[in-house]
Amino acid sequence: MTDETPAQERALAFGRAARAYAAYRPDYPAAVFETLEELAGLRLAGARAADVGTGTGLAARALRERGAGVIGVEPGAGMAEQFRRELPDVPLIRGDGNRLPLADGSLDLVGYAQSWHWTDPARAVPSALRALRPGGALALWWNDPDASVPWVAEQEERIIARFGDGCYICDRTLPPQLPWRTRELRWSRRIPVDAHLAKLATHSAFIVHDGDGAAEFLAAEREHLLRRFPDGVLDEPYVSFVAVTVRPAAGG
Known about the structure:
Elements: H1 6-12, H2 18-24, H3 30-40, E1 48-52, H4 58-65, E2 69-74, H5 77-86, E3 92-94, E4 107-113, H6 121-131, E5 132-145, H7 150-163, E6 181-192, H8 193-200, H9 204-207, H10 214-228, E7 233-246
Parallel strand pairs: 1-2, 1-4, 2-3, 4-5
Antiparallel strand pairs: 5-7, 6-7
């Protein structure tokens, strides 16, 4: 990309933390993909799918494990390099979610896992629908920290107070011109405090402010967490949000 907007600059900044992203970001629970199949009315086994904004390939790996033929689409050089380390046998195309370099009607599923909020929906929607066959599905999904849990809400408040919400809270606004089916799924993973902090450091809030207080914030956050979790282990809770819309069948 050239002449990036601030949002695009933040999106491309993830390449600086690609290895840590692959190591510490959570996978998506199986229920996300079961829900996707249900809402889309398709089976992933044998489906032709694109994982757009694939990053290090977390969603692409899961889709492949469920039998889909996957293509990764990624604009960032650092993330693309890590993707090729993680999934050397999965095809990867350099491109962004607003201008998909994919053939018309070639896919059963176009997925944006943790990446739709970096797009311009006015451009991304027609690009995705163009690449889908009639009856194919556009699917968006995110893992977000579950702020209904008190310690997560308190941490979120500290992050927003220090860095603002533009680099931490994902905008899950759905394009209103499409009929969406949605679902939220709650789950958690048990990890060490230090792994949780390493995961936090892969959010753009911390990447773009590297050298501008991010390390100091994380050190202070470690003290907060160890007071609450003195054994050094915590349950990291998430809400997975899944949204699916289906391209109308020909003549429908």
